[in-house]
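Protein Record: Sequence and Backbone Structure Tokens
======================================================
Scope: a single protein chain, as residues and as a discrete description of its fold.
Tokens: labelled as protein backbone structure tokens, with as many entries as the chain has residues.
Position: the record begins directly beneath this header, with no further notes in between.
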Amino acid sequence: MTDKAVSDKAISRLKARLDRAVSARGELEQALSAQSALLIGFITKLSLACRGKDLSLDNKLAKLRATLKKSTNFSDLEREIASISPLLHQHIAQQEVDLKALQENLLLSALSVQKSQTTNAGSQRQLKQLIDKTKRGASSLNQYLPLINEFILFFQNALLSLQAASTSASSDNDNKVTPENNNADVADNLGKASGNNLDVITKETQERFNSILNTLVNTSKHKADISKVKSSLTEQLPTHKLLTKCLHVFDLVLDELQQERASAKAFLSTLSEALHSVNSSVTSTITSINASNTEHDALNLELKTHIKTISDDINGTNSLLDMKTGVNNHLQSIVKTLAKKNQLEAEQRLALNDKLNKMSAQISRLESESESFEKRIKEQQIKSMQDGLTKLANRAAFDEFFAMQMVHYHHQSFDLAITVIDLDDFKRINDTYGHSAGDKTLKAIAKTLMDVIAEDAFICRYGGEEFVLIFQGFDKVTVINKLNILRKKVASLPFTFKGNRVSISLSLGVTFVQAGDNIHSAFERADAALYRAKHDGKNRVIYG
């Protein structure tokens, strides 16, 4: 074999090694592309999990998702992430709470003070303004916070004024003051300033307050406190004592809100830090890849130059010895260049794997926290749609469900019936045996509804002693038969309070949705049928 053939064979082997190196680099870039796609997919899902916290944040995250879908330019992504990061620090999640209950608690406190007439004209005007603001309501918790601050300042000023006007100073100033005791001091001062002549609250007011307590979504932390307040409601409860209860409940609601805000803030801070860390890692990886690409290009150019020089030497020399010497020198240079290239690729793989492992650990931690937070949000959403006392669906859940069924009905007609139920003479149970007996009655009725009719109808506690049923796919005769079975079942329940046997009955009004109905007209027709059932002697079903 001639020296030229040997050289050609060596060059072929070198070209094969070069091709393998290029192929290995292509595989590395393909793996990086797949891992980047995985990371982009997770960031997209994570941004969707944050939806609904804040409008501006939603818009920014939507823009980021759009950029991730259509762009491979990392400078665009850097700009979007840089604009999102400050928002994540500035905004916290606004948790959905029962705003109506909060509004009623504020009104109840303010109206109690207004009724006592213990404040001066200026304070009365300020109180009226607060009542007007509260009646207008708000669409979010943050909109209530300034109003809550105004209420706190007003009560503080009222307390100071009453203390200054009081002729008998308290001798217990050294006692430890708790929020509940402080609320009692405020209410007692109101009672003293009015000559201890405050009216006893009406049963209707007590029942309204009890109903509000039942609608509160409270955690196990405050469950015992709420139960204690409910059990303390008596027939002879003075107005200033009710104010004490209102203020205590108000403190519990505020504590619950603060906990939810702190939890949301902690999660968003973690999310912000993780996204910032991922952004830094991606930027660092891109910079490293660009630098490596430059070095690869330089080494590839060096290899091509050596190969071209070998080819030129072979073609341009007549001396076999010179050609052999030149080829050997160039081969040694090529071997050194390939060694550099292999070392560079190995270092790049190690650095890339290290960064990907770190990002994977960060993402796993964030994913775990995200799942935990999402679980809490779902639990809160379920609680917000559930009546606290009976565990049935509440009015908010009814409004949502019935509105959806009305949309389906008007799209394609089907049998859709609504029933309004009221417990007969329920007020007598509360007045005679107390609110705890009333609560037990409501729970027993709710359980009976679930046992008898849960498979056939949507059931909710509408408020107080009223329940609502929604039937789908049953004709008039079937619905009325089912309601009569329910009515007879309730009438046969063995209620006993304080050793006395008590009979409970239901009055029911039912109607079917018609072509021209909306949610209000259908409900009003069923409610009118309920009124006729009450008027005609109770314990009956009337179709309207």
In short: The two ends are 110 Å apart (CA to CA). DSSP finds 16 helices and seven strands in the chain. Confidence is low (pLDDT under 50) at residues 92-98, 167-180, 189-198. The first strand starts at residue 416 and ends at 423.
